[in-house]
Amino acid sequence: MTNSLFARTTRRLAASLTALSLIGTAVLPVAVWAQAAKPEAPAAPATPASPVAPASPAAAPAPAPAPAAAVPPPAPAPAKSVAGAPETEVVENPYGLEALWKQGDFVSKGTLITLVIMSIGSWYIGIVKLFEQTRLLRDAREAEEKFWKASSVQDGVAALNEDSAFRFIAEKGTFAAEHHGGTLTEQLDLNTWVGMSLQRSVDIIGNRLQNGLAFLATVGSTAPFVGLFGTVWGIYHALTAIGIAGQASIDKVAGPVGEALIMTAFGLAVAVPAVLGYNWLVRRNKVAMELVRHFGGGVHMTLLGGPRTARKGA
Question: What DSSP element (H or E) covers 205?
Answer without folding.
Answer: helix 190-210
